[in-house]
User: Fold this.
Amino acid sequence: MSEKITVALLFGGPSSEHSISCATAGGVLGAIDRERYSVIPIGITRDGAFTLQEDDPQRFALDAIDLPNVVDNGTRIVWPDSTATRELAVTDADGTRRSLGDIDVVFPILHGPFGEDGTVQGKLELLGLPYVGSGVLASALGMDKHFTKTVLAAAGISVAPWTTVLDREWQDDPEAVRTRAAALGSPVFVKPARAGSSVGVSKVSRPDELDDAMRIAFAEDDKVLIEGAMVGREVECAVLGGRPGEAPRASVAGEIVVSGREFYDFDAKYLDAPGIDLVCPADISAAELAEMQELSVRAFEAIDAQGLARVDFFLTADGFVINEVNTMPGFTPISMFPKCWEASGLSYPALLDELIDVALKRAKPRRVPVPAA
Assistant:
C-alpha cells in the first residue's frame, strides 16, 4: 500500500460558529478513509490557541444540549518555521516538544470570522502549505455578504435587494436607516455582514422590531445588511472546484421547506429543530436545474472560489435570485452540502477524497530558498 496522506484537520476558532466547526470536525473524523489518510486534529480554542486534540469523532458530536467545543488541554501546535519544510510539531502540556511529521494538506473546516474569511488561508499561504477550499480573496468575499452581492451584481447575476448599514450610521442617524429599510418593503431580514450559520439574523415584520434586530446583528459585526424578503422557494446547489484545467461542477438541487418556523435559523440548521425539511433532490424541472447549476458555477467563478462552495438561491416567479455563496459550508450529518452530493452520486467519504485530491493537485510548488551568491 502506498504511504498515507497526512491531513491536518483545523477546526474551532474564536468566532460565534465555533461549535458548528467542531461538529463538522466530528463528521469528517468519523467519515474520512483511515486506509488512505492519517489525520492530525488541530482544535483552535475560543481565545485562539492552536491545540492538538483527540482523534475521536464522538468527542465533537453535535449535541443540542451540550454543543461541542475545543477545550484547552495545554498543548500548542508549532507550525513550520519556513516554506522549506512541512514538518508540524506539538509542545505538550509538560513542555515536551515532539514532531508530528510532515503534513501533506490542511483541511480548514472553520466557519465565520478568523477562519472562513481569508485570515487562516493567508497564514497557510505564507507557510506554503496546501489546503482545501478557497484562497484569501474568495474567502474574504464569500464571508462578507455586502461584497459578495456587489461582485455578483457586477457579474450580471441577480441578488436580493439590500442596503448595508455601518454601526456609526445607525448610531448617528437611525431614522435615516429606518427609511432605507422601509424602502425595501416588509418583511425584511437583518443580518451581520460577516457571520454565518444564521447567527445574529432576525426577520423584521413590523417597524418596531427593527431596533432589536439591529442590536442583535451589531453584536456580531459592525456592518449589517438589511435585505428585502424574497417570495419564492429556498433552493441550494453544492459546487466542487476542478483540478487545474477542469471546470467546477454543480450538484443536484436541494430545497429548504419551511413549514413551522419564521425562517431557516440556527436551531433548524444544526440542532434538528422542527418546522424545517431538507429535501434533496428538489422537485424542479430539468431546465430549472440546468439554469441553477450554470448560475452556481458562474457565482463560484465570479468570486474566484476554489475547492467547494454552497450557493443559496430563491426561486421566484421571475427566476433565480442568489442569496449567498458559502465558501466553507457545514459537513454536519444534517447539512445540505454533503446531502446534495450524496444525491448526485458522491458519498461523504468520496466527497472528502475529492476535496483533498483537488487541493493537492492545485497546490503551488514548494518554495525553496535560493542560496546566496
